[in-house]
Amino acid sequence: HRVTVDVLDRLEQLALVDFRDAEGVQRLQKAIQFADQLHEVNTDGVEPMDSVLEDRCLYLREDDVTEGNCTKELLRNAREKVEEYFVAPPGNIPLPKLEERETFLQGS
Amino acid sequence: PRHRGSRFQVSAALQEGRVSPTELCQRCLSLIRSTRFLNAYITVAEETALKQAEESEKRYGRGQPLGVLDGIPIAVKDNFNTAGIETTCASNMLKGYISPYNATVVQKLLDQGAVLLGKTNLDEFAMGSGSTDGAFGPVRNPWSYSRQYKEKSVPKSHSEDKESDWVITGGSSGGSAAAVSSFTCFAALGSDTGGSTRNPAAHCGVVGLKPTYGLISRHGLVPLVNSMDVPGILTRCVDDAAIVLGSLAGHDPKDSTTIQDDFKPFELPSLTDVSKLSIGIPKEYHAPGLSSEILSLWSKAADLFKNAGAKVIEVSLPHTRYSIVCYHVLCTAEVASNMARFDGLEYGHRSDMNQSTESMYAATRREGFNDVVRGRILSGNYFLLKQNYEDYFIKAQKVRRLIADDFVKVFGSGVHVLLTPTTLSDAVPYKEFIKEDNRTRSTQDDILTQAANMAGLPAINVPTALSERGLPVGLQFIGRSFQEKQLLTVAKWFEKQVKFPMIQLEEVKRHDHGIFQHQKSASFS
């Protein structure tokens, strides 16, 4: 089953990563084909496995603050900041639609 | 012929004052400089290393070394956070990123007095099996420059650059493997998600240990697949690996996936009687593409155990061939999630694009990630789409259980340790390697190592012999969960039997002012 442009577009929006060229799309096609081999395996009655440590209790700390106060160190690595804020461009603006975006998919 | 040597040689040398920590550090730094063409290191932390060496020297002077690792030069794969030192994951996304903290494993090594020489090269974000796909270029296998390899190479015409014959290290912890293999450090940290420590260990002729999932803290290791990643240990002999393991293993409150059982560091006994040992040979590991050379070595190894009195039996891990497919889905899915944090806001690369948060994120990620990373993110997102979640992600998780159960059954039947090849062949020349794309390569190369990550089991590569081309070939032992002592004991016995030859490198000989002169000093234990 070939992946439709709609799905490709959706993936670009979800992943915030673009298919740079035909090769990128091809790569996905091949990845799906490869993954389809999973369907050869009979998994009736088999529970999904999240972790090999599923039989153990995960360690949880006490809900106490034990470290922090490292604002300076953390801000040091940010490119855009104002006082103690990370600065982001305006939000709540969805990615341009496929027709308006600069993406390889436009030509599809 | 040089041999592995007895224990605590360099540590003993340090203790007895035959060599000082600063001398040792200087020699390693000097060797790093003269082996720069290997491109094993991304960052060399010369100043801090020398300072650490000086502190170590003071401690030895007072007769108060912190332990066996005090003053020992080590290297760390560049996907571990190291405070004050750039951590790039070999990606443009993190170029210039100075970690504000040390990964737990790094901190533990430093607390033991180890001297951190630098950060080693890898495939970008540890995705790959060649250490060829990083933002700082490929790593060259030191064996490319060994007398053993050169002797076996067909002499080319004068015009052809001998440089272009170099072979890959394997990956993704190629820099760490190369660093240990070329004597620039005594141990290195790698990471292992699908074989990334064992694969380059095999190609570079060093010991590569993948511990049981949950034994060693992942805090500070940039995550790839949270349910499979483990820090890996690369050393020149099995005893050294046990020592490093001893200093790293144990519960970390900062990593809730580390088990809470008490871990006791152990010394490896020198096994003489293997008659009570049961070695399993999984038939499915006779994978398509396995070179006849390696097949033969594997067979010889099995005979070695048999002739020594061990019980050697063929076993079956029926779902082996689906391991790679399963990994492919689970890995890309977790990658899609783990890579979401790279958005340019808090750290790392940030695009100039400023129109909106979304477009800035998209541009940042387009600029920061290479094709391999982006490809996996997109695939992962595909498998996680609502319409695909059950068919791919959940399905893969079910298959994972089947794979893990295969091992449970085999170990449950009385087998102590499994013996398999680590790689399908010896290291290929770079020129040949890059003809295929990263995903295809990873698919092929991870086949023998990947299942151990699926099941969370400990596994180790032990250098076994040189191939016809004069390059290292290793064999892999897979052990029972949290039974590292048993696994390493068997590995050590095997290592002693095969007497893997030491690499003969010009550069090392030139620096050989007595430190590396005796093979004994090449290991620290």
UniProtKB/TrEMBL annotation, chain A:
What the entry lists under InterPro entries is as follows: Asp/Glu-ADT_sf_sub_c (IPR036113), GatC (IPR003837)
SUPFAM superfamilies given in the database record: Glu-tRNAGln amidotransferase C subunit (SSF141000)
Pfam families linked to this entry: GatC
Q: Which GO terms describe its cellular component?
A: glutamyl-tRNA(Gln) amidotransferase complex; mitochondrion
The organism's place on the tree of life at top rank: Eukaryota
The keyword Membrane is annotated on this UniProt entry: no
Keywords in UniProt for this one?
A: Transferase
Coiled-coil blocks: none
Tell me, what is an example of a GO biological process annotation in this record?
A: mitochondrial translation
Q: GO molecular function of the protein, one example?
A: transferase activity
PANTHER family with a match to the protein in the record: GLUTAMYL-TRNA(GLN) AMIDOTRANSFERASE SUBUNIT C, MITOCHONDRIAL
Put simply, this protein is called GATC amidotransferase
- Origin species, per record, is Urocolius indicus
Corresponding gene?
Answer: Gatc
Automatic annotation (TrEMBL), chain B:
InterPro entries associated with the record = Amidase, Amidase_dom, AS_sf, GatA
Give the CC-aspect GO terms: glutamyl-tRNA(Gln) amidotransferase complex; mitochondrion
MF annotations from Gene Ontology = ATP binding; glutaminyl-tRNA synthase (glutamine-hydrolyzing) activity; transferase activity
Q: Where is the signal peptide?
A: none
Please provide the record's keywords in A-Z order: ATP-binding, Ligase, Mitochondrion, Nucleotide-binding, Protein biosynthesis, Transferase
Q: Does the keyword Protein biosynthesis apply?
A: yes
- Which protein is depicted? GATA amidotransferase
Species? Urocolius indicus
